[in-house]
Batch of 2 targets.
Target 1
Amino acid sequence: MPDLLSTRLKHLIITTLKLEGVQPEDIPDDEPLIGSPRFGLDSIDALELVLAIEKEFGVKIGSSEESRQALASVSALVAYLRSRTPGA
Amino acid sequence: MSAPAEQLPVGIEACDCLTPLGDATATCDGLLAGRRALVLTPVLGRDGGDLVPLALLGPMDETLTPRWLPELHGLAGKIPAGAWGTTRFPVIVTSSNFGVGSLYAFVRDHDVRHLTHGTPFATVEMLRGEFNWGEQITIFSHACITAHLGLAHAARLLHAGLADRVLVFSFDFVSPFVAGGFHSLKILNGLMPAPYALRVHGSIGLGDGAAFAVLSREAGPARIAAHAFHNEMFHFTGNQPDGAGFTTCAASIAGAAQGRRVWVKGHGTGTLEAGRIEAEVLSHQFPGAPLTGWKGSLGHTLGSCGLVELAIALAALRRGKIPGTVGGAAPSFSDTVALAPFAAKDFDGAILTSNAFGGAHAAMLLTHD
């Protein structure tokens, strides 16, 4: 059964970055988000995504290194949010 | 492979700057004493936001007489007299911000009067009127290597016989618009910058800065002997991971500096990846040359940093002592990073570098008697 937080994040990624024709199940949990040949997200996408995540989950990502770590993959993002928002 | 540096030597007739620590001499003295102009300040000024390191000449708000104008008047009063803005005495204005904060203020306040000094052309037209310059003004804006381009263009004009003296004038004042942009990238955050320091999180500071230089073909005691540029065009905000972009520019200026004993004033904003590549490349191209950077105190003055830091370098030469990397800390990315001031007498040249978004690199060779 898919992780609810993971699915919610995939929806957020798709809507924030306007990934047309992409479904949540098309985004593997462990695939790198930034620099992936499949999704080709760049630093501007990362910026938009970080802002969307901060707004949606009420967290503050402190530095570009922290942001890069959090956005390593959907799994990394799930782990990051769970560590910052225990109820997530 | 590096193209040779452009060797069009020009004399520096006059050069000064303005930072929150004062003019070039006062700023140099502040750096020598290890002073930090950066203060944790709300990123959006009166609108609040997270605290980030900013070095400001006054409250960061967009007033209807723009806050930079009175400050620039003070600086312009130090420019040697001349028929500036006429054919033989052209002016080059360099900035990456101009009055962009006023455009943000217009969106926020819906007051059209902000638009009179918002765009580059409106800003320069305002300066032209305030300082009684003529119409021979060229504007350069290319992110954080902007001032280098203005200085190089001045050298080209002088060597082509198209001008007798050239005034290069640069200013960048921080606005909530610009601070907010860097903050959203997370490179302007709650940490003070520590240029070239090997640590877990990187951070930059931003600072107000303005400077001018009057250049001529006459050989003065201090000269800009060569310029090098390279644009790797790899990514908006990232560099080629192998450092090839940095290497191309550094190798080019190293060729012009052959046989000289130089110290290096790097870009050193405090970001980790670029800081590491920069320090490694510069220490490789200039073995044993001390590497220093001043943005850990003054913040990054963006498009003006090349000229602001040139003025400080000249003041340091007059003092006989070069400021170290204020805010830096061991361990550094290279053992050539100078954390403490060092004597100028052991050197007969300096390499001053800047880097910019888009993978733009610039370097100049400063020589002196």
Target 2
Amino acid sequence: MDLDFTPDQLAFRDEVRGWLADNVPAEPLPAMDTPEGFELHREWEGVLHEARWSVVAWPEAYGGRDAGLVEWLLFEEEYYRSGAPGRVNTNGISLLGPTLYAFGTTAQQDRFLPRMASGEEIWAQGWSEPDSGSDLASISTKGIRDGEWFVLDGQKTWCSRGAWADWMFCIVRTDPDSERHRGLSYLLVPADAEGLERRPVGRLDGEPAFAELFFDGCRVHESNLLGGEGEGWNVAMATTSSERGLNLRAPGRFLAAADRLADLYRDLTEGDSPDGGGSIEGLLDEVVRAWTGAQAYRWQTYRTAAHLSGGGQLGAASSMGKVFWSELDVELHATALRLLGERGELVDAVSGAGPDAVDGGSWMSGYLFSLSGPIYAGTNEIQRNIIAERVLGLPRK
Amino acid sequence: MDFTMGGDRTLFAETLRDILDDACTPDAVRASWDHPSGAVDGLWETLADTGVLGLAVPEDHGGLGMGEVDQVLLLEELGRAACPDPVAEHSAVAVPLLRDLASSAIQEEWLGRAADGSAVLTAGSPAGGSDRTLVLVGDRADLVVLVVDGAVHAVPASAVDGQCRESVDGSRRLAEVAVETSDDTLVSADPAAVAALWDRGAWAAAAQAVGVAQRLLDLTVAYVAEREQFGRPVGVNQAVKHHCSNVAIAIEFARPMVQTAAWALATGRAPDGTLPGGDGQRAVGDVGPSTVASMAKALASDAVDLACRSALQCHGAIGYTIEYDLQLWLKRGWALSASWGDARRHRRRVAEGLGLMRP
């Protein structure tokens, strides 16, 4: 056990830190899920890519630095602490990317990974359907083979970034007689495919961050089949492991929010804020509890990284991380709102509410976003079932 | 950065587990309630032979000369077995304090005897701040390490007046002690020594609490998978599953911090990156091993509290009986949660490290 970073790791961290200090935009970008904000965030992905920071853990051939897990965790810590813009292509880089490495053909990797790394192609996830949320295996959108093509009919919903994304990764039922986990396939669908219509849906904060996808005889070429035909469930489970585990939500994001929460408390108790003074000091315990939670996630993650580096698997244990970080995120933001009292409801950036971890938004905006965490990527109720059955070994029925 | 405990440490912990499974059974723990010294017969000598008691004693005093990272898994095993003997206070609190801070006269007199088990050392928590410190086996230990008037002293039994008090946990033999100090008993008057005593006690309690929580979870999972109602195991019900999952999560995120605290105590500093650093980022607070030890205790106390509550609820009435063994770990859990400072007390210490307390 050695909790010091190596000289190489420290040099890497210094390089990240220096580059971010010189390049992070002084003014926060407009919200990611607006037409203007989406394109500006895409441009930022290009800036990151140019300096080879967009996908540090990927091979150099695809725009990365071949960085190890610890370096990647350090990158995330520095990235979020710098107040850099949110990452608009997370669905691609963090979810589909690892799945492409695991299941994609060389041709598919060559075709998709570089443009994912540069932000040229932004990805959305098309999994949930109106009648299939937690019960993903019940999906009914069909993809019937017609020669070299799959013909899609059906509807997807809650597609984050789906309104403006360039590509979607979808699970469809390619065997119409199949049930449940069998007969599903994983398809990569271009947004401009004929027979695909998209309808933006306003999220809780009002931004059109979701989309519904309507497939009506939409033709997708078989070269866009990821993994084998009928093997979609296995491929999808690889993606969910990334979604729940540390690929999507490294500790850096929460460490930054926790430090900002501590700053907020300090400012309110030291300054002349109308909400400052004695009344909020009773919240100190909650502030420290949330801050400590972020530290706990950091060390559980470094331990997980060592486990993975030693050849271990993440498996169902990723569900423990997902519950922990999503509920930590809510706790961090809810605590900030309690500190702010009456001013907590303000969502304009000049409210004095203090910058949140992402894009200088208010704590309330961050709170609204955090509330999605216990729902997406499999609700936390589903995760707790998985932990009980697959980690602890309790009977299913 | 390499967060692995290593095979040798894991092997040592497994060896200790086997010893405790054999010598510190639930029946043996119960028998300690009525034992004149509160000990498990023969266990102290066995642990001396395996080197557990003298693990942190330098080799030239007859110990193994090992450190906190070597010790953390062993402490967890002591909790898992609900070990009544003051092994943690002796080997992970009193011995390191003497090793690091005491005069060579005190070291010469006590470290060798601590290693071979011929002396029982214990330590008292400064968390209460009272002049009547509660000390595990304070009435029968050969040497008590504790804080008197802001200084750390190591007081031999002849200068200790210990009045036994009854704990909810019959296998914790507690005494309220009054001591006579002298120049000969002084270990250190440096406030840092008081912090070091508290750090070690809190960390040792945290590691044991994780072991208790894990044992409670293991017992509960086994019970609800077996116990049938309505023609099926109660563990198929989502409400029961979620109790178990919540405990598993709490342990999963407390344990690495306890191991991180072991490293912080061994190196005397908090790991790099605990606070933000670098250009344009606010330099705040001053975190050291105390902050990390307190985070570990806060997380472990919360985890064991949840484990106790959930274990009892999932067992139902059988868990509420004195005959059933679950109560051994419930009571140890309650005791360890508050011992050496509860979660809230340690979060205040973290707040001090973060510079969040008004001067």
